[in-house]
Amino acid sequence: KITYGQLLMIFFSVAHDPTQWNRQGPDTGSQYRSVIFYTSDEQKRIAEAYVAQLDAAKVYSRPIVTKVEAFKAFYPAEDYHQDFLARNPANEYIVYNDLPKLENLKKDFPDLYKR
C-alpha cells in the first residue's frame, strides 16, 4: 500500500521535472503539463502544502509550475499505450526516458518498487 504523501514524493523526485511548463522530458504540449489531481479537500490541502514546502526550501532552481486541480474524469490510454514497457523494452523512448526513472525509483524508494 502506498500513501498520498509517498505518491507526492515520487511525483516530485522521480517521475518528472515540476519546473517545466507544458513539457516532460522530450514531450511538449499542454497534455504534458504538470498537474496533481485531488479527489478531496484533504488531498488538495496536502498537495498545496507539499508544493509550498518544496518552494520554501528552494529544492528546485526554477519555480514549481505544477498545478493542483480537482479531479473531473479519468480517460484510459489507448491500447497501444498499455503495458508499453513490457511490450517494447528496447524502445528508444523507454531506454532514454523511462528506464532511468525506474532505476531512480528503485534506488530512492526500494520498499515501494515492484517489478
UniProtKB/TrEMBL annotation:
E.C. number(s) listed in UniProt: 1.8.4.11
UniProt keyword terms in alphabetical order: Oxidoreductase
Single GO term (MF): peptide-methionine (S)-S-oxide reductase activity
Reactions catalysed: L-methionyl-[protein] + [thioredoxin]-disulfide + H2O = L-methionyl-(S)-S-oxide-[protein] + [thioredoxin]-dithiol; [thioredoxin]-disulfide + L-methionine + H2O = L-methionine (S)-S-oxide + [thioredoxin]-dithiol
Ranges where the Peptide methionine sulphoxide reductase MsrA domain occurs: 1-93
Signal peptide: none
Enzyme class: oxidoreductase
Gene3D superfamilies: Peptide methionine sulphoxide reductase MsrA (3.30.1060.10)
PANTHER family linked to this entry: PEPTIDE METHIONINE SULFOXIDE REDUCTASE, PEPTIDE METHIONINE SULFOXIDE REDUCTASE MSRA 2
This protein's name: peptide-methionine (S)-S-oxide reductase
Originating organism: Candidatus Acidiferrum panamense
